[in-house]
Design brief:
Helices cover 80% and strands 0% of the residues. The chain has 311 residues and is an all-alpha fold. It has one domain. α6 runs antiparallel to α13 and α9 crosses α10. It starts with a helix and ends with a helix. The mean pLDDT is 77. It is a multi-pass membrane protein. It holds the Pfam family EamA. Its main location: membrane.
């Protein structure tokens, strides 16, 4: 059982992760006009991987995987979580028929996909019926929050949307497999080598797509966007992600994809003057209800301590 301090720290890390990944949508949007998409993602993880390898060298006594299971875990992360997810997502979003709202709805299927994979690979992490209903409510909340044009989601860009769905599937499967392999590898080492391996794979995809470094425009916006994505959203974000993956399990940690749109909307409101709509507020409420159902036991355990602190 987690101590109160550890529980609050876990909640805090979850919120920080959702904030980092949610606000990353602005940075991606800012950088894409200047850097080819898959090359953009590869450069992001070149930088993040080097930073994390340096951190692993300084903080752990095993900066390089020593076992077959360790390299298998790295391979799963590099192929599915980093290269598979980001390459498929960025390629899919280049289709003009795919709006950001449509992409967000498709990616938000990740927790439900994770639940399905967990039933196969992680039987101990299966959800109860009420918990599954909470996950479904969260998905509904994301759809309302995104206010998508249903005709636009269904029609046009079918191949691109299948690619984005494949991206969400890759991320969900990668989360479950890295949890299943449980290679007893330091998180910093796992993250560093997975990022570097994923970046190498994406560089290969970038070359196959004909992307070139000469096409990059090194503007201030491009540099700031790349720096934010590499350091905050990637190096720091995935350090938190893999740490929480160990504590919460694959299903609960992937619910961050439900909370991230909230921070994306808030960041858009603050920095881009995008005023939240009624649909945004309703979406927030539905997501909150879904989380309440999913975490009902933890909330019930916490209420007596909150009452005691207030008295």
């Amino acid at each position: 059982m987690r101590t109160p301090v550890r529980r609050y720290r876990t909640i805090g890390l979850f919120i920080i992760l959702a904030g980092a990944w949610g606000s990353a949508f602005m940075a991606i949007k800012a950088g894409l006009p200047y850097i080819p998409p898959v090359l953009f993602a590869a450069l992001r993880y070149d930088i993040a991987g080097i930073l994390m390898l340096g951190y692993a060298l300084a903080q752990t006594d095993q900066p390089v995987p020593q076992t077959q299971s360790g390299w298998a875990s790295v391979g799963a992360g590099a192929t599915l979580i980093f290269a598979g997810y980001h390459a498929l997502l960025f390629i899919g979003e280049t289709d003009p028929a795919v709006t950001s709202a449509a992409a967000a709805v498709i990616v938000s299927l990740s927790p439900m996909l994770t639940t399905g994979f967990a039933r196969v690979f992680l039987p101990t992490e299966r959800l109860t019926l009420v918990g599954f209903f909470g996950v479904v409510l969260g998905l509904i909340g994301v759809i309302v929050l995104s206010s998508p044009d249903l005709q636009n989601i269904v029609g046009g860009g079918a191949i691109a949307k299948l690619l984005i769905f494949a991206a969400a599937t890759a991320f969900a499967l990668g989360s479950v497999l890295t949890r299943r392999l449980d290679a007893n590898l330091p998180i910093e080492t796992m993250e560093a080598w997975s990022m570097l391996g994923g970046a190498a794979l994406m560089h290969g995809v970038s070359l196959l797509l004909g992307e070139s470094f000469t096409a990059i425009e090194w503007t201030t916006e491009a540099i700031l966007a790349l720096a934010y994505l590499a350091v905050v959203a990637s190096a720091l974000g995935f350090l938190i992600y893999f740490r929480l993956l160990e504590q919460l399990g694959a299903i609960e940690i992937n619910l961050v994809s439900y909370v991230a749109p909230i921070f994306a909307a808030l960041a858009g409101w603050i920095f881009l003057s995008e005023i939240p709509t009624i649909a945004t507020v309703i979406g927030f409420i539905i997501i909150f209800i879904g989380f309440t159902l999913l975490k009902r036991d933890a909330i019930r355990d916490e209420l007596p301590q909150i009452r005691q602190a207030l008295n």
